């Protein structure tokens, strides 16, 4: 039976989940938190790398800041895309003001910027505010890379 490693958004424990059970709302073996949230996971400099590196699913990260108007405009669209994709793609957000080292390491020059990671490596990048449909289309267009 094929399984995936899914990092817990609460405690960062790696959890093995059978692929055919992804739709069953799996929970963390350590802290019992839900593994596949319908909301993006908030990451910071400390949690970013372990979460992205240990994910058996693609991870799309929204690099944003609270002062950024386009970021605030895109936030509900990103949230809606996350709720439509549980078990297919993990969604996360990283506040570039609160996590400047990670933003710098990934060469974030403008926000919002979406980066799609697979096995801890960047496979696609898109800058600028997008609607839910555009986010989903961008993800679908990069599914081979993901």
Care to describe what's here?
The chain is an alpha/beta fold and 146 residues long. 26% of the residues lie in helices and 26% in strands. The strands form two sheets. Strands 3-5-4-6-7 form a five-stranded mixed beta sheet. The chain has a two-stranded antiparallel ribbon with strand order 1-2. Helix 2 packs across helix 4. It is globular, with a radius of gyration of 14 Å. It starts with a strand and ends in a 5-residue tail after the last helix. The mean pLDDT is 93.
Q: Brief description of this entry?
A:
The chain is α/β, with parallel strands linked by helices. The protein has helices spanning 48-53, 69-84, 100-105, 132-141; strands spanning 3-7, 14-18, 41-43, 59-64, 90-95, 113-118, 121-127. Strands 3-5-4-6-7 form a 5-stranded mixed beta sheet.
Structural topology:
Layout: E1 3-7, E2 14-18, E3 41-43, H1 48-53, E4 59-64, H2 69-84, E5 90-95, H3 100-105, E6 113-118, E7 121-127, H4 132-141
Parallel strand pairs: 3-5, 4-5
Antiparallel strand pairs: 1-2, 4-6, 6-7
Helix pairs in contact: 2-4
């Amino acid at each position: 039976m094929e399984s995936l490693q899914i990092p817990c958004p609460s405690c960062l424990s790696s959890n093995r989940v059978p692929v055919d059970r992804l739709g069953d709302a799996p929970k963390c073996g350590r802290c019992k938190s839900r593994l596949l949230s319908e909301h993006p996971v908030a990451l910071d400099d400390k949690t970013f790398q372990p979460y992205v590196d240990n994910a058996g699913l693609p991870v799309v990260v929204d690099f944003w800041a609270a002062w950024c108007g386009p970021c605030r405009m895109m936030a509900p669209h990103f949230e809606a895309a996350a709720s439509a994709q549980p078990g297919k793609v993990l969604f996360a957000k990283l506040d570039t003001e609160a996590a400047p080292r990670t933003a710098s390491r990934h060469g974030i020059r403008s926000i919002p910027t979406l980066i799609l990671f697979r096995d801890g490596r960047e496979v696609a990048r898109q800058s600028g505010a997008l609607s839910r449909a555009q986010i989903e289309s961008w993800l679908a267009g990069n599914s081979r890379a993901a």
